[in-house]
Design goal:
Length: 109
């Protein structure tokens, strides 16, 4: 992802989540995330060591929260339903049939 302006551009690559590239007409700077340089206050918001992409921990926390809600009988908005799984299976079957026959295959509703 990049943002480009008339005097400066910045780029972030999820494949290298520890780095932010900032380029300008006169200089280019590469900022690297270094948890060792955080203040004590900032460190509490960044508990994972360098190398873990953004959202890595949060996705597991959200999943566990949704599973606990479902087990407790509360709505779990983030979890797939049986209908979601059935739809995915129908799409997969249609894609396979389309590839085998070389034709368009309707996905059943």
């Amino acid at each position: 992802m990049s943002f480009d302006g008339p005097d400066r551009s910045s780029a972030f690559d999820q494949e290298d989540p520890e780095q932010l590239w900032i380029g300008g007409r006169d200089a280019t700077t590469v900022l690297r995330r270094d948890p060792a340089l955080h203040s004590a206050h900032a460190s509490r918001f960044d508990p994972l060591p360098a190398g873990h992409p953004q959202g890595y921990r949060t996705c597991f926390e959200d999943f566990v929260t949704d599973v606990c809600a479902a087990l407790d009988g509360r709505p779990a908005v983030g979890l797939p339903t049986f209908a979601d799984g059935l739809r995915a299976a129908r799409i997969s079957a249609a894609v396979t049939a389309s590839a085998v026959h070389g034709t368009f295959t309707e996905v059943p509703a």
